[in-house]
């Protein structure tokens, strides 16, 4: 039986930006509109909720809604 064995790999130190290594500072990702935690993201979630409520209302007003097996 061929079994794999666990291996621990060493973790390298993160580069510092205090002038010693010559590495440029790390650049963070830009904040895009619609990201979680932004007003645009909140607006998108609210609109998603409103569209879901509208879709449920439309489905509930049909005559065969109670007979659909997914909702019984």
UniProtKB/TrEMBL annotation:
One of its GO terms (cellular component) is plasma membrane. InterPro entries: CASPL-5. Residues 1-27 are annotated as: Disordered. It comes from the Eukaryota. Homodimer and heterodimers. This is CASP-like protein. The lineage of its organism: Eukaryota, Viridiplantae, Streptophyta, Embryophyta, Tracheophyta.
């Amino acid at each position: 039986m061929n079994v794999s064995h666990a291996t621990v790999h060493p973790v390298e130190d993160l580069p510092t930006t205090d002038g010693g290594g010559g590495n440029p500072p790390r650049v963070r990702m830009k904040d895009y509109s619609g990201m979680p935690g932004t007003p645009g993201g909140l607006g998108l979630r609210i609109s998603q909720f409103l569209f879901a409520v509208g879709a449920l209302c439309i489905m509930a007003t049909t005559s065969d809604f109670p007979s659909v097996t997914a909702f019984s």
